[in-house]
Amino acid sequence: MLSYSNILKRSLDLEISSVADRLIDWRRHLHQHPELSSHEYQTREYIRNSLIDCGNFIFYPVKEPNLIAAIKGNKPGSKIAFKADLDALPIQELVNHSFSSSVPEVMHACGHDAHIAILLGLANVLSKMKDKIEGEIILIFQSAEEIPPSGADDIISTHVLDDIEMIFDLHVNPEIESGIIATKPGPITASIDQFEIEITGQGGHASHPHESIDTIVIGSEIVLALQNIISRKTNPLTPRILTITQFMTPQLTHGLIPSKVILKGNLRTVDDDSRYNIKKLLEKMANGIADAYEAKTDIRMLAGYNATINSEDLALFVEKVAREYLPDGSYRRLAMPYLVGDSFSKYTDHFPGCFISLGVKLNNIDTIEYCHSNRFDIDESSLQNGLKLLTYIAARKTMSLL
Ligand SMILES: [Zn+2]
Ligand SMILES: [Zn+2]
Question: Where does the record locate the signal sequence feature (predicted)?
């Protein structure tokens, strides 16, 4: 005789496979109709209508185009949340599909279309299983993930999440084999701080450098010195990156030494001490070098997302769920955090959470096209494992006897 938990599991598996094809349809529709950060109104409407169609969802008021939906069981129980993002990127897609982006210079190149599709799949499964839910499951569709501060502050300030027990975020990863679930306890994404160093010297003719304060030479020394912070002043076992991404001067002629140079870059760390110490060292080195040449500096720091710190308990819980309910070999524990940023840290700053990777790597490819590439593409068959994982996370937390 089948136990109650086996009957429940069978029902969940049936519901998951019944929405499998629709996952791909949703993802393709969204992929074809991408919208930029803070402008995702059509995307929001599409999701809202899909949730109304599947029934049993309520909507909490929130600043648009964010959307917060929830399904409540008839009995009290855990309150948990899942987050997906709405926005695409200002990129011209170069992948040739029948469902490639129909909007010039806008592309879902970070997989947010896939994340929305998976949450729509989850909504459909949960709606069918409503009578089994004890508690409340909240689905967050957040605007502007790609541009800090993102819609996360608007969502958190609604206080809808105040009493949640936990929150999860699934993000695709084209480096990991299709369908594999990967996460780790502790830090999983990095803090990203942008900086600008403006160096003001004395312009002059290229033939008389000794009469100028050469901002090009000073800027070059600063670029090299900043690399030494990473290689010589910080612990090599701690993940951190400092990258200069722009070296600019307003000067257009090749015969003159410019009076001003601006360096731009970003700093990525996963712990507060490194973040603080590297910023201090950056200022000290840039100021010290400029000072030696009698140049002036103006250093501007723009704090981005914090590092995402996964709850130890929840990362182990996700691992357990993946091993128990997904096909053998579907789980991998990550050894190191990613040095990319994600707005999910805004939630893990307040609530226990877990950021999870879903492998979407295509078969038979020579070069991995990373997130934000104009050739970014995913293996859509991975979506079902993503849905299965989130469904069983929800079921284990809100359906008794599973
Ligand atoms: Zn992105
Ligand atoms: Zn993303």
Answer: none
Ligand 2 center from residue 296 Cα (angstroms): 38
Confirm whether residue 108 is marked as ligand binding: no
Tell me which residue range forms the domain holding 276. 191-303
- CA atoms of 41 and 66, how far apart (whole Å): 9
Cα distance between residue 110 and residue 182, in whole Å: 17
Does one domain contain both 78 and 140? yes
Residues, CB-to-ion distance under 5 Å, ligand 2: 110
What is the 23 CA–ligand 1 centroid distance (Å)?
21
Q: Which of 46, 136, 198, 305 is catalytic?
A: 305
| pLDDT at 366 (0 to 100) | 85
Cα radius of gyration rounded to whole Å, the chain: 24
Average pLDDT across each block of 10 residues of the chain; the chain has 402 residues. List them in order.
82 95 97 98 98 96 98 95 98 97 98 98 97 97 96 98 98 97 98 97 95 97 97 93 95 89 97 96 98 98 96 98 96 96 97 98 91 97 98 95 66
Q: Which domain CATH number covers 19?
A: 3.40.630.10
Answer yes or no: 305 catalytic. yes
Collect all residues with Cβ–Cβ distance below 8 Å to 76 and sequence separation of at least 6: 134, 135
Ligand nearest to the CA of 344: 2
Last residue of a domain, one of 303, 320, 353: 303
Number of domains in the chain: 2
Whether residues 74 and 176 fall in one domain = yes
Are residue 183 and residue 200 in the same domain, yes or no? no
Q: Which residues make up the environment of ion ligand 1, defined by Cβ < 5 Å? A: 110
Q: Is 110 annotated as a binding residue?
A: yes
Residue pLDDT, tens place only, 8-57:
999 999 999 999 989 999 999 999 999 999 999 999 999 999 999 999 99
Please state, as a whole number, how many other Cβ atoms lie within 10 Å of the Cβ of residue 368.
14
Q: How many CB atoms lie within 10 A of CB 285?
A: 18
For ligand 2, the distance from its centroid to the CA atom of residue 354, given in whole angstroms, is 15
Cβ-based neighbour number of residue 235 at 10 Å: 11
